Amino acid sequence: MKYLMTAIAATSLVAMPALAGEPIEVVADAPEPQAIVYHGDLNLMSSAGYASFKGRIKEAARQICLPYNPDPVRIWVRQTGCYKSATKDGFAQASALRDAGLRGEVVVGAITITAR
């Protein structure tokens, strides 16, 4: 019985990340840069959960707008505008979700941010 419980616990630890998925999913085939930011695992009513969600939004904006390669200034200016647009879009949606006062368990919650 002891070995069965250990096996079940180990299987759960391995399966959880696969079930949860990544918190950010970049949409490659969209006409404008987009990312899906999941929040179902966060309590948006807590300061820590809301801060984590905003951190995910910033990371998603970085992934769709700011590549790691060095670029000329004119391209960097466009990329920075893309980042600001995406974070503004995401923060507005996050604020609306928090203002709505979501209570209880959200199984799959996500927003799609778009950079214009």
Name the shape in a single word: elongated
Radius of gyration from CA coordinates: 18 Å
Average of per-residue pLDDT values? 77
Describe the main β-sheet briefly: 3 strands, antiparallel
How many β-strands, per DSSP? 3
Please trace the helix and strand order, writing H or E for each element: HEEHHE
Low-confidence stretches: 1-20
Percentage of residues in strands: 5-15%
Main sheet strand line-up: 1-2-3
Number of helices: 3
Calculate the terminal CA-CA distance, rounded to whole Å.
Answer: 57 Å
Q: What structural class should be given to the helix and strand makeup? A: alpha+beta
Question: What's the structural domain tally?
Answer: 1
Helix content: 55-70%
